Automatic annotation (TrEMBL):
Keywords: Membrane, Transmembrane, Transmembrane helix. The chain crosses the membrane at residues 7-26, 32-53, 65-87, 93-110, 122-143, 163-186. The keyword Transmembrane helix applies. The keyword Magnesium does not apply. InterPro entries: ECF_trnsprt_substrate-spec (IPR024529). This is ECF transporter S component.
């Protein structure tokens, strides 16, 4: 019985990693352009892995996304800034791993105090903001001059500019995660309990 449970767990983990790969490869699936913005949806898959399978597996799925981003920065960059900053695994990999860790532990802690749906909603929002704040924060800290030149802003105005990106991109991504994680996570959690 334990062997069957482990096989099921590994197969779900593999499916989620495969979804992350597809989201990175298929246009408009992982990055959706809306009104001049590019909304990321890949973090939703990482957060779902973290809340359904646990923080460790969320970190693995996030790490897969980070490694794909890191490789793409060398081979097929998604933007002109990518080869300048995403070739550093601290910017491309670490924040994506931490999405799974933070969202997973947030859900575990909240689940002790709240029902599943609000716990999933908050974990989704927190996971999405973890990605946005860490990526932009690391870019602003490690690549201040490069980022200021790329965005064509004065160095003293870089952090306010990056905070503006958090507002225009990060907040919609957090709202998206807050909506999708409970919608997808609740049925998956029920199905997982039935399988157990």
């Amino acid at each position: 019985m334990q062997r069957r449970s482990n096989a099921y767990h590994i197969s779900v983990l593999a499916v989620l990693i495969a979804i992350v790969i597809i989201q990175n490869v298929v246009p408009f699936f992982g990055y959706i352009p809306i009104l001049g913005l590019s909304l990321t949806t890949i973090h939703v898959t990482v957060i779902i892995a973290a809340v359904v399978l646990g923080p460790k597996d969320g970190a693995i799925v996030g790490g897969a996304w980070g490694l794909i981003d890191w490789i793409r920065a060398f081979t097929a960059p998604t933007s002109a800034l990518a080869p300048l900053v995403f070739t550093n695994p601290l910017v491309s990999v670490l924040p994506r791993v931490l999405i799974g860790v933070v969202a997973g532990w947030t859900f575990i802690w909240l689940r002790r105090h709240l029902k599943p749906a609000p716990s999933l909603l908050v974990a989704g929002v927190v996971g999405a903001l973890t990605n946005t704040i860490l990526v932009l924060g690391l870019i602003g800290t490690l690549y201040r001059h490069t980022a200021a030149g790329f965005y064509q802003v004065d160095l003293s105005k870089l952090m306010p500019y990056l905070l503006g990106i958090v507002g225009t991109n990060g907040v919609p991504e957090a709202i998206l995660a807050g909506v999708l994680v409970p919608l997808i996570g609740l049925p998956l959690m029920r199905f997982r309990q039935v399988k157990k």
